[in-house]
Amino acid sequence: MEDHTRTIVEALESEIPRLEADTKLPSESELMARFGATRHAVRKALGQLEAQFIVRRVKGSGTFVNGRFDYVLSSRVAPSLHETFARVGGVMRTFVLDASTQPVPADVAHRMAPVVGTHNLRLIRLGYLDDELVNYSDVWVSPKVLPEGDVRLRAYESLTELLRAGGAAPVRRWTRVVPDLTPTAMLEHLPIDNPVPAWRMESYVDDGDTGEPLMFSHGWMRQDRVTISVEYENATVDRGTCCATSDSVHNNSRGD
After folding, report:
1. How is domain 2-65 classified at the architecture level of CATH?
2. Residue 126 and residue 232: Cα distance in Å, rounded?
3. What global pTM score does this model have?
4. In the CATH scheme, what architecture does the domain 69-231 have?
5. pLDDT, tens digit, 9 for 90 and up, residues 110-162
6. Alpha carbons 129 and 100: distance in angstroms, whole number
7. Among 134, 161, 156, which residue's Cα sits nearest to residue 66?
8. Given this model, what pLDDT does residue 181 score?
9. I need a labelling partner for 42 at 20 to 30 A (CA). Which of 32, 35, 169, 191 fits?
10. Distance separating alpha carbons of residues 162 and 185, to the nearest angstrom
11. Distance CA 132, CA 186 (A)
């Protein structure tokens, strides 16, 4: 059985790179017939490929070649979900689950610089990449730059566009990426029962012209659908955590 599993994995690993993303693979029964294997061996092989994000299995539909989009964190790329994924052929749509004015907690105040307890606009958003949920974010936005954000968000999906429309020049100054699992709040909107591997991202954005704090975000991005590339010269990696900062001299990116 182990030999069959290994044979199936090796065969599909060599064949899948020649297939386009979302191509449907043969059914379990067809793979059993092709390799003379048991259903258990086939399922074990597909499970190994899924764990490597090579394939994705959809209950009731089958197994498909998994396509992953590259999300680039760079001083040369505007820090915008919509713009970054558009560059690699993806269409990002974001929807606000909740928008409310709340006291800023200590961890956000540390980056945003207001006094703890100052009221900022808090947004809970879902991000769909090519109509599939890949992102959940908790964003704090300064009321100085977005005093009527809850109203204006109805006209803008991208926070980058919204801030630019208000006269700001958003620049990502600091970011951290940590391997994690999808949060419970995101699972409520996914057709799965258990958490899946995700990238947990934290970012601080200010105005490139004035230095005024604009927003701080906590976000989760599914690892099976998105890869993260960090291209900052001063990025550091410690125990799987990547942290990058930029300064006003070297970073001219403007975005989400």
Report:
1. Orthogonal Bundle (1.10)
2. 27
3. 0.76
4. 3-Layer(aba) Sandwich (3.40)
5. 888 777 778 888 999 999 998 889 999 999 998 777 665 555 566 678 888 88
6. 25
7. 134
8. 92
9. 191
10. 25
11. 12
